[in-house]
Amino acid sequence: MSQKKAVILVSGGLDSTTVLAIARSQGYACYTISFDYGQRHRAELLAASRTATLLGSVQHKVVTLDLRSIGGSALTDDSLAVPEEETAGIPVTYVPARNTVFLSIALGWAEVLGANDIFIGVNAVDFSGYPDCRPEYIQAYETMANLATRAGVEGQALRIQAPLMNMSKAEIVKLGLTLGIDYGTTVSCYQATEEGLACGVCDSCRLRRIGFEQAGIKDPTRYQSGA
Q: Where along this sequence does the record place binding of ATP (predicted)?
């Protein structure tokens, strides 16, 4: 019997790397996909490739998109500053429709591969308030995926798996360590340097740092001088 396949969305950050390790631990042959969408923190692409290799991805694919052409986010428009303090509401680091775009391409690849499962590292506990990280969104997208694909119509049920959805960042860190992840190889910072050094002050850095503190684990993140 052939090994079951899954497509894993990986960004090189803490959450998606943990999801990849979870999928691997569940016996999936993991096909990883990242997106070069014009993000200012391009160091994450190198981190994604690195962690995919370390965690045994069967194939790692980088898809190029130009989300800078529509802008609307501090991650795709250099005229918008990345907030360095916690902000109310949906922050300017939200990239319009990003997870919908990413999941749609991952869905297409899953059909080509004959994979019934797509894993994504969204979280609704310790997160920045993005609307496309909520359980309602994931459930709705899964329904759409099964309506919109040949695989779904022909009875090959497609599942969007978000195993971190209800976990705190500290719980994610602890789980990842049991799965053998070296979080020092990951990059979460929204404005990391080309070498992957984190700023230590953006929302993503703040959530990551708090996660290690609450887990009682030494933070392996490589920070910029003075961060």
A: 10-20
